[in-house]
């Protein structure tokens, strides 16, 4: 099951929108100089959110399973690595949230990268420790590598380009597989978004104008490359003979599509800037070319 998307949705619900509702342009505008009160608020908010997320996660995923001594597992061959893509996505966006929060409070670029962009890695490490003490799961070095990659993707772009030209994004569509195993893949839409890897697609969305500054391409146009997987009812087919016949068509998919960088849309409204920044983690539906191991090449007029 995908715990990582849970964290992103939590951030979407609790982060800048609580501020945007005040409709105060001056409040939402990032400060050019350090504002100690803002920084204190950011630190308190992040500690509160992280604590609440860990408590909620403990009740949602761990409470019903036995505890164990700290142990590790090798789950790199499970779910065709879709869970690892989720870890990269989550670590990147939580780090971006942390860095942007420090920017809003007026912290230096160095502080944003050292203390802000590493928030995701620190939080996801805590989650791995939780896994390590659960008899159902275990500490995964593969997950940690994906977490570190997500943080590195954010930090490296800031160091090289001083902007985020390539952004991990997420999209979802319902599948037939959740109904075959709802206890694992989700019995409701909200659960399926979190748990059904068959319906999840992870993208790397690149802004065209950022790479070709002199081009006449609109600044918000992106090209996105995505990955997905299908036919998965269990993590490992060979260990689950009950589902092996149903998973005979387990395969990967790769996608090429258009996208939009919402942060490139010009507006003077800091509320809209906040809105765009938060939802820029979601890939917009668009015409898409799919290359599948089981079905070859397929074109979608509108892919979710």
What features would you describe in this structure?
This protein is an alpha+beta fold and 304 residues long. The chain has twelve helices and eight strands. The strands form two sheets. It has a six-stranded antiparallel beta sheet. The longest helix is centred in the N-terminal third of the chain and has 27 residues, at 36-62. The two termini are 20 Å apart. The relative contact order is 0.13. The model is unreliable at 12-23 (pLDDT under 50).
Please specify the SSE layout and strand pairing.
Blueprint: H1 4-14, H2 16-20, H3 25-28, H4 36-62, E1 72-73, H5 82-104, H6 109-116, H7 119-132, E2 139-140, H8 141-161, E3 166-172, H9 182-185, H10 189-195, E4 200-207, H11 208-211, E5 221-230, E6 251-260, H12 270-279, E7 286-292, E8 296-303
Parallel strand pairs: 1-2
Antiparallel strand pairs: 3-4, 4-5, 5-6, 6-7, 7-8
Short description:
This protein has about 300 residues and is α+β, with helices and mostly antiparallel strands.
